[in-house]
Structures are given as structure tokens and as C-alpha cells.
Amino acid sequence: MTESTDSETGDRNEESLRSPDNTRGLSRRRLLTGLGTAGATALAGCSANPTTPDGGDLRIGTLHPPVTLDPIEIRDVGSAQMAEKIFDSLYAYDESTELVPQIATGRPQTDESDRRYTVEIREDATFQNGQSVLAEDVKYSFEAPVEEDTPKSWRFDMIESIETPDDRTVRFNLAYPYPAFTHSLTHEIVPKSVREAGREKFAEEPVGAGPFEVRHFSKEKKAKVVRWKDYWGEPKPAIAKITAIHQESPITRMMSLVSGRNRIIEPVSPRIRDLLSKRNGTNVGLREGHSTYHIGFNLNDGPTTDETVRKAIDYCIDMDKEVEKFIAPVGERVHSPLPEEMAEEWDMPLQKWRDMSVPRNTSKAEQLFSEAGVNKEIEILVPKDPKRKEIGRKLATGIREAGQRASVSPTSWEGYLEKHVSGSASDYMVYIDGTHGGPDPDSFVYQTLHHDQEGKTQGIFYDNADLMERIKRARKTSDREKRRGLYESIITEALEDRALLPAYSYQNSFGYKDTVEGFRIHPNAQLNPRVVSPNNVISIDDTDFLGSDQGGGSR
């Protein structure tokens, strides 16, 4: 039993173990009884075959089910996590955010203007259908998101042109120097001919150049990939099969881990973290991640176009209290669209932003609602995420206590991805969203606020031409201090206008069995669990499976 973490999170007292999904009213004693039953079930079911044949099956219970496997279209973390195993990129991240050549032969060559990047492609790089990875495929992979106006277009719309002097050379010409462009080079490479032969089929049965091939995909339910025996890259995968199963309930995920049904679960609910970390045979891993969550308002249609209404809603929830209750200790309060660690690294005015948060004040909210003359029910849209549902319910309760009608509308992941960016008040007035970005502030600010991403990654529809111009300007300068000043002014103004209410961020959290060896967590949630990385592979060792589940010691 271990708990690994990159930062000290501290313990907190266990409350009554309640959550919006099958845990309401569940006592600690009943939960511990269930854990014992699950452990006994594991012994009964697994004692006949404790060994792992040919690498084994890595079963993962996850809150984030894949919606598509096409990396050109992906806009959710669950889809990205599965695509990472199927596709390779020009460059991959190391254990942090340094680039390592993957399909590329070496580092990109740049000119003095920082507007031209030249990349050479490995001759042995091959797709799973036997075709070589050629410059034409790379060119297509970077042009398609912009030409098709997909949610990922923001990562590549600074590219003015792409040249392919030969089959192994790609030259990216940028319209302006973009400081974060090297991170864009981690985009997955797809075979042009296969995807163009049928995009809908490709989204479910893709062909990549990565270490695993698709065997089964059921949208929002289950995905199975198997080791590609002819994988050209290094290191080779040790695991034979990966099966990811959607499990919304944190209790279901926990029981599946303890019983041995799953070997990894994600995320780990705050209320079960300590129970898992103290149990023989299971471990909890934590690492700070590149993600934030916020309450977004529909500024395009409905009552939330009125700033007075948005201010009233802000007074309807004590976000500090709710984050401490439902998110800590595997997450923390944030006060901007940026992760706190990134905001500190960029010397942002965190105290100033913290001071802009308001305490819950029902009478003030009631007064503001009255001034605005609201006569419609406030609809809060969330996906099937227990924590977002809980925060949404607390917000709805506060709105009702201020004299207004309010409801929470949980919907499927695919339905949420479509609805929360529509701009229609019939779909949402308020939504709770997460932004998964990279190591640069642009990946959070642009996705969350810029009007180019309306209908793609955000549904705020913030009409502020000067602020949009500043976001663009921040992308075009390499001067870090100038960028810092621009992002400070952008975020401060958005907070003052109540375009969004920052809420919380999560650590990347996993529960995993002792039998999973080499397990490491990456700060980029979209890469986890990383079964094959430049310097590591995950493997399964069941030789001591029975001993560990009978309390045979901790690791």
C-alpha cells in the first residue's frame, strides 16, 4: 500500500461517505465491509490463474469514456487518453514537458525569425496497415483541424503553410512567431488516405502508428486495444491488451480495483483516497496536472447575458467551502482559468484574483435577481461527472434560496460536448466545464475565452473585441514579460465581467494494483495512463497476486 505524490496534500477528516452516484448515505463501516467482501471475491475468482499470459490485460475503470478515436476531432480527455495509445506523434513528452523525438529523427530546426520549423521523419516509421509515415501524412494531420474547423484548430491556426520538399521532410511556415509551437508538434499523425476514405469509420476504427491497435470501440462505454506486434518504435509495449471501461460511480471504480476486476482506476474520489492508500495490494498515485474547471455563463442568449444576473449567481455559492468539501484533497481551489502552479510560475496576481471572489450572500443575490427582473428558470448543464453534478446542485440550491427557479441537467458526455458550446439558452444558461491544456497559458486562455473557439471548446460567447485582440497579441510575442502582462489584463477583465467563475483544479489521481509495475503519472491528463513512454513501459506481474491481496505487505 502506498500513496505517491509530487506535492504534500495533507490529510483531512473522513466525512460521511456520500456522493451523487450510489454513495449517498453510505457509511464508512458499510464501505469497509464492502471492501472486505470485494477482497474475498478477488481471492475466490483469481486463485486458479495467478499468472499473466503474454503481457496480460490491463483493465482500466475510468470516469472519462472515449467519445471518438479520431485525433483530428478529439475535444475530451477520455478520447485523447485512448488515442495516445493508438497514434504516435512527431514528438512526445518525457516524464515532464520536454520534447523527445518520436516519428521525427531529431529536434526541429528553426530559423532566426522563429517562424520556420523543419522536421525530418524517420524512415522506419510505419502505420498499422503497413504504409510508411510520409511527409504528406504529417502535412495533412496538421492542416485538417484548421480546414475542418475542429476544436483543435487553435493549436495550428498560426501555420501559414506547410511544405514537403520530399517524403521525409516537413517544413512549417508560421504567420507569426508562436512561443508554444513546439508543443503543437506533439499532435498525433494520421494516414491521410485511410482517414479520407471514410472519416466516420476512422473515428471508430482508426489506423495509427502507435503501439496499440483498436479491437473494439463502443462510444462512451468501452474501448479495447491490443499490442501491435509489428510496432516499429522503441520501447516496445509489455502489455498485450488494454481495456478501458466507463464507470461513473467512484464506489464502483473502487470496488473494481479492490476485487481485481480492474488494475487501474481514474480518478480517485477524495472520500476513498485514504481507504485505498491504506489497503494492502492497492496504491494511490497523485501528480499536479494541467487542468482547471470553471463555471461558464451563456453570454449569447438568455438571462445570463445580463451581468447583473451573473453577479447574482456568483453570490449563490461558497466555492471555497464546496471545493474543500467535494474536491480536496485531490484538488484545490483556483481563482483564474490557469492552474495555480502555472499562475505562480508566471508571477500572476493571485492574491488580487482571490480577493475578487465573493462570499455566499443570499440576500445580495436576491436583490440583484430582483433588479435584473429574471423570470426564467436558470438551467445548469453538466456532464455525467459526479463532482460537477454536486457543484451544480449546490449552485442550484443557492439560486433557489435567492428566490429563483434553477435546475441541473446532467447529460451524456457526447451530449454535453455538443450542448455546452451551442450558445442557445434552451441548451444551457450556466455550465461547468474543464479545460485541459499544456505548459503554456495560451492553451487555457485561448480555449476558454477567445471567440474563435466559440462552438468548439467554449460556450461563453464573450463579446469583447479589445480583449480578443489582446489574446491574439499574447500569442504573437515571444517576450515573456509582455505576455505575462497581457494575460494578467485579459484574465482580470474576464473575472470583473463575470464571463466565468473559476472553481477548482484536480491532481491527476489514480488507484492501481501492486501488480502494475512501472506506473507513472504524467502532468498532462490526456496522456494517462501512459503505458508506453520514451523511457518507461508499464508491465503486469501477477506472481505475488495472492499474497498482496491477502495483506502480504506493502510496496
General description of the model:
- One of its GO terms (cellular component) is periplasmic space.
- One of its GO terms (molecular function) is peptide transmembrane transporter activity.
- Belongs to the bacterial solute-binding protein 5 family.
- InterPro entries: Peptide/Ni-bd (IPR030678), SBP_5 (IPR039424), SBP_5_dom (IPR000914), TAT_signal (IPR006311).
- This is ABC transporter substrate-binding protein.
- Strands 1, 2, 9, 10, 11, 12, 13, 14, 15, 16, 17, 18 and 19 form a 13-stranded mixed beta sheet that branches. This protein has a four-stranded antiparallel beta sheet with strand order 5-6-8-7, covered by helices on one side.
- The chain has 555 residues and is an alpha+beta fold.
- α9 runs antiparallel to α13 (362-372) and α16 (442-449) runs antiparallel to α17 (465-476).
- A hairpin with a 5-residue loop joins β3 and β4.
- The N and C termini lie close together (6 Å).
- The protein has 19 helices and 23 strands.
- 52% of the residues are buried.
- 32% of the residues lie in helices and 21% in strands.
- It has three domains: 2-65 and 214-289 and 508-549, D-Maltodextrin-Binding Protein, domain 2; 77-204, Dipeptide-binding Protein, domain 1, CATH 3.90.76.10; 291-506, Roll (Dipeptide-binding Protein, domain 3), CATH 3.10.105.
User: How much beta, percentage-wise?
Assistant: 15-25%
Give me the count of strands.
23
Rounded to an integer, what's the Rg over CA atoms?
24 Å
The total of helices stands at: 19
Note the gap between the termini: 6 Å
Structural class category: alpha+beta
Major β-sheet annotation: 13 strands, mixed
Give the CA-based shape: globular
Question: Which CATH architecture of the largest domain?
Answer: Roll
Helix content: 25-40%
> Low-confidence stretches at least 5 residues in length (pLDDT < 50)?
5-30, 40-52, 544-555
According to CATH, the homologous superfamily of the largest domain is Dipeptide-binding Protein, Domain 3
What CATH first level of the largest domain would be assigned? Alpha Beta
CATH topology of the largest domain: Dipeptide-binding Protein, domain 3
Mean pLDDT: 91
Write down the domain tally.
Answer: 3
